[in-house]
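Lecture 7 notes: from sequence to structure.
We start with the chain below.
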Amino acid sequence: MTKTLILIPSRMSASRLPGKPLLKINNKSIISHVFRKGEEANIGDVVVATEDQEIFDDVIKSGGRAVLTNSKHKTGTDRIFEAYKKLKLRGVDYILNLQGDEPNINKEDIIKLNNLMINKQLKIGTLAAKIENDLALIDNNIVKVITKNKLENNNFPIALNFIRNNLSKDYKNIYHHIGIYCYKVSVLEKFVNLKQSKNEIDNKLEQLRALDNNLNINVALAQSAPIGVDTKEDYLAIKKIMEYKL
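Predicted structure tokens for the same chain:
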């Protein structure tokens, strides 16, 4: 049976909103909300990978599982690979990198990505949602992905490019990228041993390292795009949504 491990990279020193993993929504930290979403997907073990003792302690106190990693990592993917090696788990086929700042991600989308990866035996997969508001096209904080073919509910086309910059509505097959990745373990190891590409560094998008090294990334259609907590405004918006649901 194919085995998936969910790893959630998290750190306190985010440039735009330091300390965001421990901000509270419904009296629970953002990182703990993400951990629970990973557990609810019920596809494998869930572990938070962090360089910060405060995050580690919060996750453990909330009944979760965490591992401390080096503070020198340049990307979240490098962090999750160290965590995977430290955990020394046997028989893991896929590692799913769940972003630690998307507490309202849909568990069904996590399950869908994992199932497509396993059923099609692919190397790297991610999610994207339809763009409902044209303002997303000109928002540099929203990463867009251009796919080779139109995204449908049951297909898994490859990504042609990932872009932050302004885009025209004239582009075909452009979607709101969701920062979740699923890697075959052997491909993840290959990825973290590649040098950061100029394209990756300039755009601050580590997925471009894969494309620049001819590693395909397949994209699945998500039901919706979760709110990523990058700014105080994002936090207040998602706090209002999630607390209102109760």
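Points to note: The radius of gyration is 17 Å. The first helix runs from residue 30 to 41.
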